[in-house]
């Protein structure tokens, strides 16, 4: 972004989003509940990059199942996991041309198309999950989603999550920023992610999620960063010996709908999709948080060395991010960053 996103813009868009949401609620209250027989017959595509055992994949399938049940089978949503119909970037592009109807895509990948979403991956921005939810579900998030819809024609229905990111390596325990120097490190293909690990002295290598296991196995890269659930679900723990709970970024996973598809829907179908997306958002977040501890215990029992940073060690990583924050204050705008920092 050349000029950044101002807090005034965030507030204005948030107010507009609130007005629209209120109007929708009033309209829906005035109309009798839709019955299954009123639902049109439809076949839609839902793509994502996650393994079927991951809570994210289960959330997507749950969405499809609930919609099928509530529409009495009239609306069929076929879910394509494991990047079978494209990588995260491919899915965004496919939604823009109407080839895919729904997708789960990390904020950092969507930011390649709508840069203000980099706010979600600013390292060490979020104090905890509750803070992340306050940004993603509150006025800041609502304003960004409304502006994104206008700019790139993709609608945000919900925000799933894969949790806070960790650092894994093959043969090196990571406790300090200095331990990252020279490590060949897979990162998400986004300039912010590259900048984050360059600031630690690593050798960042952008790579699609579907290619990471092979890259680690063959030694193309020595380490990577992903939340605990991804490390377990994709089997990275089988080819990595060390995991550091750095919590350097929170991975929000956007539940997206193509606007071309959305505009052609009857109101009762829009309502069904919107309500079910939020219902499954809550289910997915709980499932992920419930399983994360179990996954970590399993990996530790299988011989993976788990490093839990002390507050002093964590601060050293945060301090190393100062150049990244300086660069992105200019790109994102100080007011947007502060509105996220102060979200309650």
Automatic annotation (TrEMBL):
Q: What is its main location?
A: other
Q: Which UniProt keywords apply?
A: Receptor, Signal, Transport
Q: In which family does this protein belong, per the annotation?
A: Belongs to the bacterial solute-binding protein 7 family.
Q: Where in the cell is it found?
A: Cell envelope
Name listed for the protein in its UniProt record: Tripartite ATP-independent transporter DctP family solute receptor
Gene3D superfamilies, sorted: Bacterial extracellular solute-binding protein, family 7 (3.40.190.170)
Tell me which positions the record assigns to the signal sequence: 1-36
GO cellular component terms, A-Z: outer membrane-bounded periplasmic space
One BP annotation, GO: transmembrane transport
One Pfam family assigned to this protein is DctP
């Amino acid at each position: 972004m050349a000029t950044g996103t101002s807090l005034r813009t965030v507030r204005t868009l948030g107010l507009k989003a609130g007005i629209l949401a209120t109007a929708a609620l009033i309209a829906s209250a005035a109309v009798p509940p839709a019955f299954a027989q009123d639902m049109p017959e439809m076949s839609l595509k839902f793509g994502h990059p996650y393994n079927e055992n991951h809570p994210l994949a289960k959330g997507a399938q749950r969405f499809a199942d609930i919609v099928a049940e509530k529409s009495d089978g009239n609306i069929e949503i076929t879910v394509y996991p494991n990047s079978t119909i494209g990588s995260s970037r491919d899915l965004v592009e496919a939604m823009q041309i109407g080839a895919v109807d729904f997708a789960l895509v990390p904020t950092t990948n969507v930011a390649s198309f709508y840069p203000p979403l980099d706010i979600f991956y600013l390292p060490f921005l979020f104090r905890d999950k509750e803070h992340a939810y306050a940004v993603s579900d509150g006025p800041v998030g609502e304003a960004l989603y409304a502006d994104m819809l206008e700019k790139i024609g993709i609608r945000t229905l919900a925000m799933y999550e894969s949790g806070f990111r960790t650092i894994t390596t093959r043969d090196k325990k990571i406790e300090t920023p200095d331990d990252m120097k020279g490590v060949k490190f897979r990162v998400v293909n986004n300039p912010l992610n590259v900048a984050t690990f360059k600031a630690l002295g690593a050798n960042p290598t952008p790579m699609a999620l579907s290619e990471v296991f092979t890259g680690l196995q063959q030694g193309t890269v020595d380490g990577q960063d992903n939340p605990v659930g991804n490390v377990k679900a994709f089997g990275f723990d089988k080819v990595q010996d060390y995991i550091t709970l750095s919590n350097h970024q929170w991975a929000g996973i956007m539940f997206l709908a193509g606007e071309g598809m959305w505009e052609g829907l009857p109101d009762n179908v829009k309502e069904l999709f919107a309500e079910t997306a939020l219902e499954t958002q809550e289910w997915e977040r709980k499932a992920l948080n419930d399983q994360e501890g179990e996954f970590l215990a399993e990996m530790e029992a299988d011989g993976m060395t788990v490093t839990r940073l002390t507050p002093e060690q964590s601060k050293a990583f945060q301090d190393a991010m100062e150049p990244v924050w300086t660069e992105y204050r200019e790109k994102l705008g100080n007011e947007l960053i502060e509105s996220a920092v102060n979200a309650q």
